[in-house]
Write a structure and sequence with these properties.
By secondary structure, the protein is mainly alpha-helical. The chain has 20 helices and 2 strands. The chain has a domain of about 70 residues.
C-alpha cells in the first residue's frame, strides 16, 4: 500500500469508529471526514491522490437523497390522514387472540415496509399494538419488537422499501420491477417474502401460549384519502418509469431517463400533497410539520458518506479490498465462490448488528462490484446479483440481531421508553435472534439457488 491508501484507510476506519461510539453526531462525523478527504485531495498532499470539491459533489447520489426526502414527506401526510390506523383496525377485526394479533400486525408492518420507510412503518403500526395491550393489560414489549424486526425484514422487498434497497438499485442498475423478476429469475421480493413467512412461523411459535381474547376493534374514521392516493401514485410512477432505461443501459438512439428521475417523482408527489394541504388549511402549519419530520439525520449522513466512499475509491482502497476478497476464491471453483458469498452475507449480518446498515451498504456495494469482476476475470462466471442480493440479505436483516442495529429498532424502543418500558438488550435479542437467523438462512439459501 502506498501513502495515500494508508491515509484513506486510516481516516475511513476512524470515521466508522467515531460513528459507532458517538451515534448522536454521526452526520457531523461523516461530513467532517468528507471535508478532510476533499481538503487533502485538493491541496495535493499526496501526488497520486486528487479529489476536488466538484468531484466530491459528483460522488453524491442526488437521486437517492431526493427519493428519501420525497418518500418520507408523503409518508408523513399518509400517517396524518389516519389511513394506516384504519387499515390496522380492519385487520384486527378478523383476529381474536393475542398470538394471531402479533403475527398479523408483524406481517402488516412488513407489507407496509415494502413500500414505506421502516421507521415510518413502526410509527404507523406500533400505536395499534400499544392500544390493544393496554386494553388487555399486558406488556407491549414483545409485540412491538416483532413489529420492528418485521419492518426491517421487508425493507429489502422493493426498490422503495428501504434506503439500502435504493442504494443497491442504483449500484446494480435495477429498477422497481427488477426486485420482482430479473432476467426471468425471481428477484429480492420473493426471497424476502419467503424469509418473512418463515419468520412469521417463528413469531407464532414464540406467542403460541398467548390466547387472550381481544374483543371488538375500534374503527378509525378517515376523512382525507388524498395522501393515500399520492403514496399509491408514487409507487405506480416508479413502476412505470422502471421500464425506461438509464443512459448507461440504453441502446444507441433509444430514449432514456435522467439519473434523478425517481427522486424527482418522489419529490413531486410530496410537494403536490404539501401544496394541497397549505391551500386547504390556509396555513403553513402542516407544511412546517412535514418538513420537520423528514429524516435530515440520514440525508446528511449519506451525503457525507458518499463523499467519503468516493475518497477511498479514488485512493484505491476499494479495489484493494475487492482483490483481497476475490483472492479467497482460489481457482474460481463453485466451492470457493460459495465461500466468498457466505463471507459477504454473514459478515454483513454480524457487522449490521452493530453498525447502521445504510453506511455499511453504501461502503460494500462498490467492493462487491470489484469482487464480482475479479471472480469473473478468474473464470468463475458469477452473476453480479448473487453477491449484490447476498449483501442485501445480510445487511438488511443483520440489524435485527441487536436493538442498535437498525433505526426502526431504535424508534420502537423509544416508543416503549415513553410508555415506561426500558428494554434490555437481552430481552430484544430473545426475539430478534431467532427471527433474524430464520430469515437470513432462508434468504441465504434462496439467493444461492436462484443466482448460482
Amino acid at each position: 500500500m502506498n501513502a495515500s491508501m494508508i491515509f484513506a484507510l486510516i481516516l475511513f476506519v476512524l470515521t466508522y469508529v467515531f460513528m459507532f461510539t458517538m451515534q448522536k453526531i454521526r452526520p457531523a462525523i461523516a461530513v467532517f471526514s468528507a471535508f478532510i478527504f476533499v481538503a487533502v485531495g485538493s491541496l495535493g498532499v499526496f501526488p497520486d491522490f486528487s479529489y476536488s470539491f466538484g468531484e466530491a459533489l459528483g460522488e453524491i447520489d442526488w437521486n437517492v437523497l431526493m427519493m428519501i426526502v420525497g418518500t418520507m414527506g408523503t409518508v408523513f401526510l399518509f400517517i396524518e390522514s389516519q389511513m394506516p390506523q384504519r387499515i390496522s383496525d380492519k385487520l384486527i377485526s378478523h383476529v381474536h387472540s393475542v398470538k394471531w394479533l402479533v403475527v398479523v400486525l408483524s406481517l402488516f408492518a412488513g407489507i407496509i415496509s415494502a413500500f414505506v420507510d421502516n421507521v415510518a412503518t413502526v410509527l404507523m403500526v406500533a400505536p395499534v399494538a400499544l392500544a390493544v395491550c393496554k386494553r388487555l393489560n399486558i406488556s407491549p414489549v414483545a409485540p412491538i419488537i416483532c413489529i420492528s424486526v418485521s419492518s426491517n425484514l421487508q425493507g429489502a422487498a422493493t426498490l422503495v422499501g428501504d434506503t439500502t434497497s435504493i442504494l443497491l438499485g442504483k449500484a446494480a442498475n435495477l429498477d422497481f420491477m427488477d426486485f420482482f423478476f430479473v432476467e426471468g429469475r425471481p428477484g429480492m421480493f420473493w426471497v424476502t417474502e419467503a424469509g418473512a413467512l418463515a419468520a412469521a412461523a417463528v413469531i407464532y411459535w414464540m406467542f403460541r401460549k398467548d390466547d387472550q381474547y381481544i374483543g371488538e376493534s375500534h374503527k378509525t374514521e378517515v376523512e382525507d384519502k388524498v395522501p393515500t392516493w399520492l403514496l399509491g401514485l408514487t409507487v405506480l410512477s416508479l413502476i412505470a418509469v422502471s421500464f425506461i432505461p438509464y443512459k448507461s443501459n440504453a441502446a444507441e438512439g433509444q430514449f432514456y431517463k435522467p439519473d434523478i428521475t425517481n427522486g424527482l417523482l418522489c419529490l413531486f408527489f410530496f410537494l403536490l400533497g404539501l401544496a394541497r394541504r397549505v391551500i386547504k388549511d390556509k396555513s403553513f402549519d402542516m407544511a412546517k410539520a412535514a418538513l420537520k419530520e423528514i429524516d435530515y439525520y440520514t440525508v446528511v449522513l449519506l451525503t457525507g458518506l458518499f463523499v467519503v466512499i468516493g475518497g477511498i475509491s479514488r485512493a484505491g482502497v476499494i479495489d484493494m479490498i475487492g482483490r483481497l476478497l476475490a483472492g479467497l476464491s482460489g481457482s474460481g471453483s463453485r466451492g470457493s465462490v460459495f465461500l466468498i458469498y457466505a463471507i459477504i452475507v454473514w459478515v454483513s449480518v454480524l457487522l449490521s448488528a452493530f453498525i447502521d446498515n445504510i453506511p455499511y451498504t453504501a461502503t460494500m456495494l462498490p467492493i462487491v462490484a470489484v469482487v464480482t469482476a475479479q471472480l469473473n476475470a478468474a473464470g468463475a462466471n458469477v452473476h453480479p446479483n448473487l453477491l449484490y442480493f447476498g449483501l442485501l440479505v445480510g445487511a438488511t436483516l443483520g440489524g435485527n440481531l441487536t436493538p442498535i442495529g437498525a433505526s426502526a429498532n431504535i424508534a420502537a424502543l423509544g416508543i416503549l421508553r415513553r410508555e415506561g418500558y426500558e428494554v434490555k438488550s437481552s430481552t430484544f435479542m430473545r426475539y430478534g435472534v431467532p427471527f433474524t437467523l430464520t430469515a437470513v438462512i432462508t434468504g441465504f439459501l434462496l439467493v444461492w439457488i436462484i443466482w448460482m
